[in-house]
Write a structure and sequence with these properties.
The chain is α+β, with helices and mostly antiparallel strands. The protein is built from 13 helices and 21 strands. The protein folds into two domains: about 300 residues, Beta-galactosidase, Chain A, domain 5; about 200 residues, no CATH class. The strands form three sheets. Strands 5, 6, 7, 9, 10, 11, 12, 13, 14, 15, 16, 17, 18 and 19 form a 14-stranded antiparallel β-sheet that branches.
């Protein structure tokens, strides 16, 4: 009966994974079809700038006073005492928009003088599969803008049409140095907003400073990330599964993630460490300095066009003096543990490495993985070496498990006799079974407990190999050209993933070596097939590790059987 239940359990597990692709479609984890559908308003009013071109920066329309005034709610005017913010005069609003650039050998940031918005956040050391430079900001989006509100009535004035005059058109940080760009906007009546961007060569963290002058009490200022984050991978599904907006708020990670037919919104006040958006491997975040309480807003909605999801956030607080400076860390770079850890302490929580105990193990493994790559300059061979080392570490546990399983199999005839003898007396059967275990010196859970102790290690390795950017576009050999993607060989137009088949083959032979009870023969054939379906679309780096581990399991099982046979022959 137990064997039948075990077989049924494995069949159900296999059925779940067979239906998983349909579940993904149902939950909206695949890109929606490119059909037009209405979208709703997000945190701030959506605007559609002119489309970008490949050879020139994203074009910007000329800001006008009429448009700026149109964005001010009718109940608010420049002279309204409830909203002590003046609409900029014609001289400031009529200047044509142009783009300015600041960068280093790691980044290239393009900003518009209209609203001081970021139009591009390019990561120069990372490429998309089509060869284009990874850009965190989607085409047409204007990110990192500022809005002002009256504390009394929450009326919003969007400053995206305000002209910001830069002190340079292009500045670059080189040879470990710094470069700075200052942009100043005049709001009239002695009020001004100054934005200063400082880039350090070799770092992805940008120092962002906003200086508010001449504002009276009752003014709230907000920083906005608009437009979400762009796709960067060959298969949009890879990015969409990981894409979300998140914040580390009151020492807790909050996040929003939506599918193709729902919107979501989250708003709160409290202690904000950072807020950001991420896709599979890249991250854009803002981390305000100081311990002031902030109001944080996050929104998420589906789109009918790339990047198919729009994740936005905004946070702000009161401007407390007539000359006040806000300092903010702007991280725009890879989800690289070594990179994000050097800034705001909790920023590394953006990496999805599992629950705390698993996360701690995964972080240690990640440090070892990166260190090993400095000696072995190919992550494929690093993973092979990693599999050998982990196998050596868990060898005592697996050896104990094999020994206990073998002893339990030897007791099966005696257990069968007890079941037949006390078939109608369950209590007596339990007592006699436990007595037999004590007399024979066998622990009935001895074969399971060592495997349970290994589970945090295996889960940590799964989290590591399926999410670390170190494996992105990292080749191994032969047909395996990207360890972050499933391996693929095209046979007659069908993409065949060879590594899962090799892994299943190794698992089959290993299972045959451990199988003693003929009743378990079906599992020897079923489990490898189930594992093929489970790992068919897993990254080749993860499947490579598991294949190496299974091959080493065969070697250990052979050694265990050989030593046991010698021991029995000597007896």
């Amino acid at each position: 009966m137990d064997d039948k239940r075990t077989l049924l359990a494995f069949l159900l597990v296999g059925l779940i994974f067979l239906l998983m692709p349909y579940y993904y479609d149902w939950m909206g984890l695949t890109p929606p079809p490119p059909e037009e559908r209405p979208v709703q308003e997000a945190v701030t009013q959506e605007r559609t700038p002119d489309p970008p071109t490949e050879t020139t920066p994203r074009s910007q329309s000329t800001a006008t006073l009429d448009r700026f005034e149109a964005e001010v709610p009718p109940a608010v005017s420049a002279t309204d005492d409830a909203m002590p913010i003046a609409v900029p005069g014609p001289d400031g609003a009529s200047k044509p928009a142009r783009t300015v650039v600041i960068g280093s050998h790691l980044q290239r940031m393009v900003l518009s003088t209209r609203g001081g918005a970021f139009l591009n956040a390019q990561l120069l050391e990372y490429r998309r599969p089509d060869g284009r430079i990874v850009d965190l900001i989607p085409p047409g989006a204007e990110s990192l803008t500022v809005s002002l509100r009256a504390e009394s009535n929450e009326r919003i004035i969007d400053l995206r049409d305000l002209h910001f005059e830069p002190d340079a058109d292009s500045v670059w940080a080189t040879e470990g140095g710094e470069a700075s760009l200052t942009m100043r906007a005049d709001l009239g009546d002695g009020r001004s907003l100054e934005r200063r961007i400082v880039v350090t060569d070799g770092e992805y963290g940008i120092r962002l400073t906003h200086r508010f002058r001449g504002f009276r009490d009752g003014t709230l200022a907000f920083l906005h990330w608009n437009g979400g984050i762009d796709l960067a991978e060959r298969d949009a599904k890879l990015d969409l599964q990981a894409m979300r907006v998140m914040c580390y708020f009151n020492d807790s990670l909050e996040e929003l993630q939506v599918d193709e037919d729902e919107d979501d919104r989250w708003e709160e006040r409290g202690e904000l460490s950072w807020a950001g958006v991420r896709n599979k491997y890249f991250f854009a975040a803002l981390a305000p300095s100081g311990s002031q309480r902030h109001r944080i807003e996050m929104s998420a909605r589906p789109l009918s066009r790339e990047p198919f999801r729009e994740y936005e956030f905004a946070f702000g607080r009161r401007v407390d003096s007539t000359d006040e400076t806000w300092e903010t860390l702007f991280y725009a770079g890879p989800l690289d543990f070594e990179q994000v850890e050097r800034y705001e302490g909790s920023l590394s929580r953006a990496l999805d490495l599992g629950i705390p105990v698993v996360r701690q193990i995964a972080e240690v493994f990640l440090i070892v993985l990166v260190a090993a790559h400095t000696v072995v300059p190919n992550y494929g061979w690093v993973i092979v070496l990693f599999g050998v080392v982990v196998k050596l570490l868990v060898y005592p546990l697996t050896h104990k498990s094999y020994e206990s399983a073998a002893r339990m199999q030897e007791l099966q005839p005696k257990l069968t006799v007890l079941r037949e003898k006390y078939n109608n007396d369950k209590n007596r059967l339990s007592q006699e079974t436990m007595k037999l275990y004590r007399d024979e010196g066998v622990n009935p859970i001895g074969s399971c407990l060592p495997m349970l102790l290994q589970m945090p290690i295996f889960i940590a390795l799964y989290q590591l190999f399926s999410s670390t950017i170190e494996l992105r576009q990292a080749p191994w050999m032969l047909w395996i050209t990207d360890l972050s993607l499933p391996d693929e060989i095209d046979i007659g137009g069908f993409p065949l993933h060879l590594l899962p088949l090799l892994m299943a083959t190794a698992m089959f032979f290993q299972s045959r070596m451990t199988m003693k009870d003929p009743k378990q023969a079906a599992l020897v054939y079923i489990m490898p097939v189930v594992m093929v379906f489970i790992m068919w679309d897993f990254s080749s780096g993860l499947v490579l590790y598991w294949t190496v581990f299974n091959v080493l399991q065969i070697g250990q099982q052979y050694l265990t059987n050989h030593l046991r046979q010698k021991k029995e022959a000597a007896a």
